[in-house]
Amino acid sequence: MRENAEMISNLDRSTPLIADADTGFGGSLMVHRTVTEYIRAGVAALHLEDQPTTKRCGHLRNKQLVTEEEYHSRVRAAVNARKQSGGDIVLIARTDALATLGYNEAVSRLKGAIKLGMDVAFLEGVTTKEQAKQVCEDLKPTPVLFNAVTGGMSPDLSVAEAQELGFRLMVFPGFALGPVYAAVSQAAKHLKETGAPAGSGGGSPRDLFNVVGLREAMTLDIASGGGQFDQGV
């Protein structure tokens, strides 16, 4: 997870990265290490949750939870790690308690985490716009994050709708999965049925290399007096 976060955060250091830290991947020592490693990787913010280490997606049913005390122990470890490292990473407190323990217990967990030093609240799996607006009101002035999972438990909100309800941050964790799944499935079906690949649709190999930095690589080589691309590509 740290290596993936480091790779993404270094694609463009001017764009801040919010990374999922799941449960912190263990007890307080592992939470401390996770936060420290994410800071070193250049991550701008992370969210930490209250499921057990063997967790499941927040938009599936029958999620298990650790006790509030254990969750807040993770929170303390995260806050202490940031302080010890001297970093400025934004710490997002996530709870999955809504579906299992109810709204009041979920908000209690978030308020406790905020009191301990977390910067942003994240109530996973809100089910209605009314509930979404309520949690933003109940946790003021702490910023609240909305997790936009298409087809999940939460209502589908646009950025403007989320802002109107009171959310200050919004993430779209699976926005590309559906389109990629559909495109790859269609291409695989075509290959299986015809024995030939479908039309590229996405351009030539040169176009794809340009997306991942070919032009920048050529510029760097020329600026340093290299000749790797003298004959073109």
3D structure, described in words:
This protein is of the alpha/beta class and 233 residues long. It folds into two domains: 175 residues, Alpha-Beta Barrel (TIM Barrel), CATH 3.20.20.60; 41 residues, no CATH class. The protein is built from ten helices and six strands; from the N terminus they run H-E-H-E-H-E-H-H-E-H-E-H-E-H-H-H. It starts with a helix and ends in a 10-residue tail after the last helix.
Shape: globular
Structural class: alpha/beta
Number of helices, where a helix is a run of at least 4 consecutive DSSP H or I residues: 10
The domain tally reads: 2
Q: What is the name of the CATH topology of the largest domain?
A: TIM Barrel
Question: How many DSSP E strands?
Answer: 6
What is the CATH architecture descriptor of the largest domain? Alpha-Beta Barrel
> What is the CATH superfamily label of the largest domain?
Phosphoenolpyruvate-binding domains
Name the strands of the widest sheet in spatial order.
1-2-3-4-5-6
Strand percentage lies at 5-15%
